[in-house]
């Protein structure tokens, strides 16, 4: 007799308990603390592992990209300040990812038991009441950490992100593909605003990226991020999640894949056209570093965008689609934010020229 998802969840939840007491017998206070910390690190690593490219690597790439167009600022800033900025960014975005993942995984235990058994709850590293306690503690503590590291504006951005997570994943939790795409898009905007806030708190002369450029990146995300749904389509269908591949169904999937590929490749083509116009503008001939950055990052983005587009249309199976998103789509995202960091310098140049004129 086949076991249903509900039965699997009922049976598995009885086994989802913290590590047995005979595994954590302390030999002293220090040994007890060491084992508690080790256990918590294991839980955190399993919580964050799946989305670390999106939640931690992407903002660090964004941080590095901020300094690339301004090598003078990078060379004149003391290395201690740069190291402090990197440490603050890493801590803040570990918290940023944690407050999302703890909610996501507490509310999707049945799916994780079937599809993602490495996660801490189905793996038996974390019981469900313990996960709810960590949810409460992390949502209370993480904005305070952000405020201490980068000021009240960072805490405000953190709080806004938590409200958005609650709206999309807890209540009202509108089951529509638009909100799936919008969650990632608004989350990306919030992420890079937070990056700017962290760096500006330590280096006041740091050039903040204009909001309309961040909105361009968010627009790219909202129109293409359903790339992540293709490899989870079967699981989403069982969970009755109305993601875009589930909504269009098998008959419309081929057209959806072709449209998504065109959007990804088309966005890359727009970057090439913008770069060509910039190169032809004589006012930018003196900005060789900026022009070189636009050419290199634009070219790399187009390489990854084309790979994503072709792999999306090819449709080589679940593992193939997962690699398309996790590796190549994320590489396209990294190079896109690097390109936009260089592009903001061209806009500032145009403004300065118009003022002088």
Automatic annotation (TrEMBL):
The chain crosses the membrane at residues 255-279, 291-316, 328-346. It is found in: Membrane. It is a multi-pass membrane protein. The keyword Membrane applies. Its main location: membrane. One of its GO terms (cellular component) is membrane. One of its GO terms (molecular function) is transferase activity, transferring alkyl or aryl (other than methyl) groups. Keywords: Membrane, Transferase, Transmembrane, Transmembrane helix. InterPro entries: Prenyltransferase_related (IPR050475), UbiA_prenyltransferase (IPR000537). PANTHER family: CHLOROPHYLL SYNTHASE, CHLOROPHYLL SYNTHASE, CHLOROPLASTIC. This is UbiA prenyltransferase family-domain-containing protein. It comes from Aspergillus sergii.
